[in-house]
Fold these 3 entries.
Entry 1:
Amino acid sequence: MTDPWNPEYEPGEADPEITSALRTMEPPAHGYGFWAMLDARLAAEEIPQTAPPPPPPPPPPAALPPEPPAEPPLAEVIPLSPRRGPGRWLLAAAAALLVVAGIASITRGDDTKLETTPAAPVTTVETTTPLPTTSLVPPEPTSVPSTVPRTASTVPVAPGTSKPGVSPTTVRRSTSTTRPGILTLSPAGVGPLRLGMTPRQAAATGAVSRYEAADPTVPSGCGQASADGTYRSGDFTALFVDNKLVRFYVDGGSRLATPQGVKVGSPSSMLSRVPGTRSEAPHPYDEAATDVTFMSGGVGYQFTLNNGSVTRWSVGTRAGLDLTEGCS
C-alpha cells in the first residue's frame, strides 16, 4: 500500500524523515483523563480498532463408551426371501410354525391319538375297606445255602384242622459227618476216611462200624471194620495194621469205583486209564487170576483180573497191598 503523503515511499522501507522526527520527539506529558479523551476522539473519528482475537476452539467432546452389540434382527436368524412385500412375512410365519410343531412333536412323542380321543368320565368310588398295597421290596429268596442248616417252619393252622401244617420251603439236612453220594475210592480215601487213621479216628467219622480185632487174645493191633453210616456194609472193608488204616477192600456187590470209573465187573481194558507204575503177578490162590498193581509213591491200586474183567480191587499203602490175606 502506498503512503498518500509520501508517494516515493515503498512498503517495507522506513521513512527517514519520520524516523528522524521520532528520534527527536519527547514523550508527551499526559494529564488526567488523557486516555479517555483519546478513546472518545477515536470513536468520534470512527477509526477502526484492532478486533479482539477469536476465542479458542472448544475442546473435543469426551469419547463415549462403546455401545453393546445389538441383537441380530430376525432376518439374520431366519433368512427370508429377498423379495419385498408381504411374501417374506408369510415365509417367516411358516418357519415359526414349523419350529413350534417340531418342539411339540418331540415333547409328546407319538401319542397324538390321546389328544383327539375324549377321556372317559372318571367315577369316584368311596369305600371304607382299605385297599391292598403292593410292596416294591422283592421277596426274600427261598434258596438256602448248602452250609446253613434250616429247620422245619410251621404255618398257621388251616380252618377245620387241628394240626399246624409244614411250610413247603422246609429243608432238612443230615447231621452225619459223612457225605452221602460220594462213591469214589482212591488213594486219598473214601468219604471222610483216610489211610493212616487209627481205629478210634475212623469210628469218629461214622463211616465204619465198630472195630473188630483179628485175634482178640493177641494185642497185635490188626483188625478190620465194615462200611457203615451212609455206606452199605458191602461197599468196602477197612483193614487196620498196627492200629493204622492201611487198605480198603472192594468185592462184588460194592457201589464204589475209582475216579477213572473202574469197578467190579469192568473190562481189563479200562485199567489203561489208571495212573501209576504198573506191575503184574499171579494171584496166590487162584491160578486163573492175575493181580495188577499201580503204584504212585507210597500208595496205589491193586486189581484182581479173571477172565478179562475185574473181580476184586483195593486201595492202600505199599505195605498194605503186599499183604496176601488179612494181616499176613
Note: Residues 87-108 form the longest helix (22 residues).
Entry 2:
Amino acid sequence: MALVLPGGGARGAYEAGALSVLLPILSQRGEDPVILCGTSVGAINVAVLASLAHEPAAVGAERLVAIWSGLERGEVVERVLGPATVRSLVRGGAGLLGLPFGGPSGLLDPTPLTASLGRWVDWERVHRNVSLGHVDALCTIATSLERGGAVAFVESRDPPPPARPGADLAYEAVRLGTDHVRASGAIPFVFPPVEIREPARAAGYYIDGGTRLNSPIAPALALGADRVVVIGFAPFGPAPARPDGVSQGRPSFADVASNVLDGLLLDQVGADLHRLAAVNANFVEGSVNTPAGAARRQRAGKGESPYRRISYALVAPQDRSEVARIAERVTRERVGGLRAIRHPEHALLAHLFGMGGRGAELLSFLLFDGAFAGELIEAGRRDAQRWVDRHPNLWCSDGRHDFDLLPGDPEAEREVTALEEWRSLNRR
C-alpha cells in the first residue's frame, strides 16, 4: 500500500488532517502504508511519517497534526521585512546582470526550514525503519535544472526501478536527508533552488518536483504498490472553464502566479487520477474487443506484463475555492484594523496579492500560520471521513464511482490512446 502526497505549500496541513482519519483506519485493517511518496510539502509529510513508521499509525498522524497546528511562519521562512529580503533581491538582480556574486533567488527565504526539518524528522530513525522493513520505500520528487526532468530520490532496501529510455523521470537510490526534501519544495520564484550533492551522479541544483510530477503515483506503482491513497487540494476533475468572451480585466501578479501554481501543483493531480481510472476501466476491466483489448494483446505478444488493477482511496475538497476562502478569512482576521501592526508579514502579503479571488488562492500556498493550518486540518478530516462513509471498504477501482468513466466510453478511450502514444514514443 502506498501513500501519495502532492505539493501545495501551506496547504500541506490539509494532508495532515486527512491522514489523521485514514491512517488509524488503515492500521486497523492491517494495511499500514509501506511505500511513501511525496512532492514538495508532501515530501515533508511523508518524511515525518517515515521517521515514525515503527510506532502505531496514530502516532505519526498525531505528530503531523501537532506540527501543523503549532506552525509559526518563522519556522518556514525568514521575515519578508528584513535583511534576508534585501540580500535575496540583490543576489537575484546581480544574477540577471550576469555578475559573479549573483544567482537565482526567490521571493521568500526558506533558511529556517532547514532547522525545522531537523526537529521534525529523525533521519537516523528513517534509515533504521527502512532497513528493518517498517518502510519499503521512501521517495521524494524534485526537478533537476541540469536535466530538465523529474528525479525520484528513493531510499529503499531494494534498488529502485531503472528509468525507461527517454523517460521524463529518473530514479536515484540515496540515503535521504534534509536537502532532498528542501529541493522537492523549492517552488520556482518563491524559494531559491537547492543544491544536491549526493548521490554524486545526480549532483546539481533542483527546484520543486511539482513542476514535473506533483502527484507521484507513477513512482509508487513502479515501487510495487497496487493500492494508493492520494490526497489533493482541489476536486479530482477538470477545472471549471471561464465563460467565453468575458474579459477579466488586466491581470495582476496574483492572477499570473496563482494560475502558474494551480497548473503546476493542483491540476496535475486530478489529471493523473483521471488517467489512472481510465486505465482501470479500459486496460483492466474493458472487453477484449475494444481498442484497449487490442493493446493488451499487443503487450502480451511482446512478453510485457498486463496492466494491474490499481485500487485507490482519494481525499480532496468538494469545492475548488474552499481553501482560498479559508485563507482569505484567516488573513482578514490577522490584518483587520490595528491587528496589522501585530502581523506585518501577513499584512504585506495581503497587500501584495490582495485578499480576494486569485490573491486568496496565492495566499493559501504561502500562509504558513497555525490558525490557517488548524482550519485546513479540520477540512481534511471532514473530507477523509466523507470518502470513508461513501466507500465502506475504503478502496475503489471503478471509474464509474468517482470519475463517471465507463469501459469503452469516448473520454476514457482518449485517455488510454494518449497514454499509449506517450509510451510508444518513450520506447523508440
Note: The CA atoms of residues 385 and 428 lie 45 Å apart.
Entry 3:
Amino acid sequence: MPGPVVVKAQIHAGGRGKAGGIKIASTPEEAEAFGRQILGTRLVTPQTGPGGREVRILLVEKALEIRRELYVGVVIDRRREMPVVMASTEGGVEIEEVARRSPEKILREWVDPLLGLCDYQARRICYGLGVDAGRGADLLKGLCRAFMELDCSLVEINPLVENSEGDLVASDAKLSFDDNALYRHPDVVELRDFNEEDPLEIQASRYGLSYIKLDGNVGCMVNGAGLAMATMDIIKLAGGDPANFLDVGGGASVEQVKQAFRILLSDSSVEAVLINIFGGIMRCDTVAEGVVQAARQVSVELPVVVRLEGTNVAEGRRILRTSGLQFVVADSMADAAEKVVQAARGGK
C-alpha cells in the first residue's frame, strides 16, 4: 500500500490509541515493524481492565487526510424508551469524557422507532456539527437504519472524519448487538471472536447461563437477574465483594446447575461461594441435587454457603445436610451474606 498507512490493533475495547495500539507508518517497512511490535502484546485500556487484551489481529488501512474528527452514534435512551442519536464535534476521544467535561457539546435527537430519523432531525444535527446537510443527513439516516435492522444496542462512528473536500468517512466504528435478537442474524453470529471474550463467560453461554466476571472474591450462583442483583448488593452490604454475576435462570436443569457450580470453582479469585435460590419456577430440591452432584465430581476446597427458599425447600435442605459434604445452610439472605463474607475472609 503506497503512502502512509494506519496500523490498528483489533480488540474489543476503546482507547487503543493512547495504549499504543494505533500507529501511523510512512512506508511498508515501518508498517511491518509496527505490526511486529503490536501483535502479541497485551493492550491495557480503560475498557479492558487491568488484565488487558492480547492483540491477535491487525487492521492496516490507508491513512486519511483529516480536517476534523467528529462523533456520531445511536444508543437506547432507557428513560424515554427510544433510540437517541448523539453527535459531537469532539470526535476521536471517549464520548464519556466529552459528556463529563463538556456536556453542552453533545447534540441529541430522539428517534421514533416507527418513523426513523426524520429529515429535519438529521439536518439539525448536521447544522450543529457544521457539516454539509446533504452528505451528513444520508449518513445519519443510514446509521439509524443499521441500528434498527441489525437489532443493535449501540452503533457509533468515532471518529467520523471530515476531509479537506468536505467528505465524511467512517474511520472507525463499533456495533453492539442485542443478544436476544441474534437468532435473526446468523451472519452476525458468525463474526463472534471467542478470543475477545472471557473463557468462563464462553463456557457459561454454551449451557444457557448468564455469567459476567467481576473483581471480588465471593462467587455467586442465583436464579433470576433481580435476585442476583440483590444478592450482590447484600454481599457488599456485609462488607464483601462479589466475584461474578451468575444467573442460572428460572428453569435450570440439574446439568445446568452442575455446570454453573463448575464455572464458579474454575475462577481462581473465588474464595467462598454463595448459592442463593428462590424456588418459584425452579424447585429447591433440583438445585440441591445439581450442587451435590457437582461437588462430588469436582474437588471442592472452598466454603459453600447455600440459601434456599420456596418450592420443596425442606427437601432441598435435607439433600444438602445429608450429602456428607460440608455445605453451610443459611436461614436468610442476610445470614447467607454474613456467613459467606466471613468465610471468604478466612473465618469458619
Note: The CA atoms of residues 222 and 276 lie 5 Å apart.
